[in-house]
Amino acid sequence: MAIKDKLSGNEAIAVAMRQIDPDVVAAFPITPSTEVPQYFSQFVANGQVHTEFVAVESEHSAMSACIGAEAAGARTMTATSSQGLALMWEMLYIAASLRLPIVMSVINRALSGPINIHNDHSDSMGARDSGWIQLYCENNQEAYDNLIQAIRIAEHKDVQLPVMVCYDGFITSHAVENIELIEDEKVKEFIGEYKPQYSLLDRDNPISMGPLDMPAFYFEHKRAQAEAMKNAKRVILEVAQEFEKLTGRKYGYFEEYKMEDAEVGIVIMNSTAGTAKFVVNELRKQGIKAGLIKLRVFRPFPFEELGKALSHLKAVAIMDKAESFSTAGGPLFTEVRSAMFDYAKDTKAVSYIYGLGGRDVRPDEIMGVYKDLLEIARTGQVKSTFNYLGVRE
Amino acid sequence: MAYNLKTLTEKEERITGGHRMCAGCGAPIVVRTVLRALKPEDHAVIGVATGCLEVSTCLYPYTAWKDSFIHSAFENAAATVSGAEAAYRALAKVGKVKGTTKFIAFGGDGGTYDIGFQALSGAMERGHDMVYVCYDNEAYMNTGIQRSSSTPKYADTTTSPAGSEIPGKVQFKKDLTMIMAAHNIPYVAQTAPFRNLKDLYEKAEKALYTPGPAFLNVLAPCPRGWRYNTPQLMEIVRLAIETCVWPLYEVIEGKFILNYKPKNKLPVVEYLKPQGRFRHLFTKENEGLLDEIQKEVDRRWNRLLELCGEA
Ligand SMILES: Cc1ncc(C[n+]2csc(CCOP(=O)(O)OP(=O)(O)O)c2C)c(N)n1
Ligand code: SF4
Ligand SMILES: [Mg+2]
């Protein structure tokens, strides 16, 4: 029987980590992720896990220690936010290229400067090309579920890539919600025992990791890494199916909300999807055919699936909680629109950058976005492709 | 058992020949000697920071390392190896490890005194059972001989060039061994490939088999950066020691022990003279600079004698 509880996102993640019982956790405090290592170190102190908790002196060392541990054959996890993720940047690429299935919770927070502890997605968006799989979560339940699935995805023999599970700082990390937990034994059974193919501790088969690659080999190694990311697309769905059997909760690349007959829609990630669903419901009451897509898997990017899912819309708004300073929309917009070029050419697309640095996003503002889309749908004219939502100009 | 280089060299080498370090380079001798101090039945996980040693010994698809080896980046050899050591302890708890594994990190002076200093300090403070070995060639050699905080005063490097106004690096060398001693870890030693390598070997053995963190700072001359003739490697090391520029000492549980006291302390110019990086000091107008170097060497040496109870 599933266990009903009330937990904050960070508590839910810490509970999942207790259930996973990783061999090594190396972490460094940063708001709003700090609670994760805090709660977890209490589990260590109480002997509830067998984990070696390494309280490193920086996030750079956190990721470096995770790399050393995972390379030594240990199931390894960590958590961070914002500047912490930024400080790890160099090591993120190395973790992925060494094909180490580290699982990290990223509790999304704005990047400095100016320093700001509140939510947006500039931190994990900055790491989008680091070779990590990225899963995004609307709420506590999804954060918990994704973390458990992440272990299976990362360690799959055809993948062997690190995974970030991203959820919104404070909004998700600190707000207490109802949650359904899986029994400890069932989590254990679902993730299985970690049996790495290669390990530094395999004394009978010593290996060298992290060599210098000359131009004769580097490209092939990167190509193999890209292939693993392609494999992840398949594995993510396989793991989701098994997870559904276990819990009844369904996961895919993205969630389609009232999309079948929709004429206008938005593409959005994480907690704001909850607010946007409320707006969709309001619009539906007025007989307006509004829909929504909440992206779960940003890396690998579901290019074809997402493009096709938008093909029947007249207009779509792609909502970025991160600025890319390209002057041509946020990172999500750029990629979604690229997919639409092949699969949804007739759908008009506009970009909205919203909620930076924790700026509240109200239902009436999202309502405004749908109003803009309806106008585009009616006239077939896009007045402004690149937009900001809720900012003083 | 008394130290005998000849019998020890009969042990199987744990780093192969055929790596690409320059002739007359101190670093491979340091590595080979440290690894020789491992018990043959013990396995080792070796982490190396980016630098000359790493790029010359693990060039895909080749490796010179017979044990398990990992390179991840420049500034994090200590953190990377600390993670592997934590993994070992965690997996030992659940009965998943076989035999004894030793954990060793090698970093150049750049990867140790400078960019990797924080990771080193953190790993040592956390108490991982590992040995960190700095092979100190006193500059960033891999990128073409740039100054580090380990570069000695007035040395000519490519970012502290001797010019008509500034005679090379203007700062004295950072005393990292003392800083590591201040970490109050079980074992800290300063050593070099001296004479028959006894000092280096024995310190490596102590570092490896003292439980907890240990730090070795090993002088590892570089003929390209220091500009000496390659066959002179051992002579350069000898002069560093006989002039007290690089004293051999160890700190065991906080107790300072001097391992070698020159019978006849040589003037520092004897050490500086054969090295091209100090050539510009040997002019009439720069005599004062040589005096300044001598004074600082004497000051540090006298302080060490005091700490070792030898004053
Ligand atoms: C973060 C980072 N900065 C700079 C470099 C470039 N780099 C590679 S090796 C090196 C110098 C290494 O110096 P040292 O640690 O003294 O080792 P050596 O090459 O002298 O043996 C530098 C600057 C790098 N690889 N990574
Ligand atoms: S440049 Fe210097 S440190 Fe590097 S391999 Fe050559 S001699 Fe050794
Ligand atoms: Mg150097």
Automatic annotation (TrEMBL), chain B:
Short name of one Pfam family: TPP_enzyme_C
Molecular-function GO term, any one: oxidoreductase activity
Domain Thiamine pyrophosphate enzyme TPP-binding: 50-218
Gene3D superfamilies per record: 3.40.50.970
Keywords of this entry: Oxidoreductase, Pyruvate
Name this polypeptide is given: Pyruvate ferredoxin oxidoreductase beta subunit
Organism: Caldicoprobacter faecalis
